[in-house]
Amino acid sequence: MNVIVGIGARRGVTAQEVCAAIECALRDSGLNLDSVRMFASSRLKEDEIGIIDAVRSLGREIVFLDDETINACTPRSPSEASRFGLVGVAEPSALALSNEKELILEKRSYGRVTIAIAR
Fold first, then answer.
1. What is the pLDDT of residue 37?
2. 83-90 contact pairs (CB < 8 A, 24+)
3. What are the φ and ψ backbone dihedral angles of 42, each rounded to 5 degrees?
4. Each residue of 8-37: pLDDT tens digit?
5. Do residues 5 and 39 lie in contact, with contact meaning Cβ atoms separated by under 8 Å?
6. Which domains does the chain have, with CATH numbers?
7. Structure pTM?
8. Percentage of the chain lying above the pLDDT 70 cut
9. Are 90 and 115 in contact (CB under 8 A)?
């Protein structure tokens, strides 16, 4: 399988928090890291060292999407990102880069990190 993991997070999350959330989300979905093609998030998160370091430690790359790309997607779940003018972060980021535009895992919060997975 070739999935995209969308990541949203509160400001100042640690790499450990992000890695733990990714591990839980993959386990909840019956997937492993080998299934992940790429990680995605909003440009609002491109300075979040915890996200960057977590993805780097997993040996993958992350793409930070612009507002237009994110808002072109229709997430299933409402999001607090609306206060930043976005329809969401985790779900639309995952959907935007996925091949089939199908959510495997609707956004789920793991502490201060939100993860969604799409294929």
1. 95
2. 84/44, 86/42, 86/44, 88/8, 89/6, 89/7, 89/8, 89/41, 89/42, 89/44, 89/45, 89/114, 90/6, 90/7, 90/8, 90/41, 90/114, 90/115, 90/116
3. -85, 150
4. 999 999 999 999 999 999 999 999 999 999
5. yes
6. 3-118 (3.30.420.180)
7. 0.93
8. 97
9. yes
